[in-house]
């Protein structure tokens, strides 16, 4: 049986999730924010992966299209878009491997990596 909801994105800050939620709802897509209240518990938010923006599975394609149009992509230390070494796209986002309890609780200690949203290649920051 297919799940009724699909997670489109995860956010570290509730305000970011609410902005995307407002945009999607203005386009007629109903949105559910999973774990939105857990963000008040400090380091627990990192262990659960932040607040998840979910939409009904039937609305997934339209929601992804809207999110892709407004989403922020990763920037390097100089403020330039991170370019994928494989496909040369400037559509990367921060990627956390979250291996082991230590990095699940303290993901900011994990080495910075990026995932290309075009070809899905994972690269380490230079």
Kindly describe this structure.
The N and C termini lie far apart (43 Å). It is built from 4 helices and 6 strands. A 3-stranded antiparallel beta sheet has the order 1-3-2, covered by helices on one side. Strands 4-5-6 form a 3-stranded antiparallel beta sheet, with no helix packed on it. The model has no long low-confidence stretch (mean pLDDT 81). It has 2 domains: 66 residues; 54 residues, no CATH class. It is 28% helix and 22% strand.
Largest sheet: 3 strands, antiparallel
Strand % is 15-25%
**Rough shape?**
globular
Which strand order do you get reading across the main beta sheet? Answer: 1-3-2
C-alpha Rg, in Å? Answer: 15 Å
Average pLDDT figure: 81
Percent of residues in helices: 25-40%
Distance between the termini: 43 Å
Task: Indicate how many domains the architecture comprises.
Answer: 2
Number of helices: 4
Order of helices and strands: EHEHEHEHEE
Q: Stretches where pLDDT falls below 50 for ≥5 residues?
A: none
- Count of DSSP E strands? 6
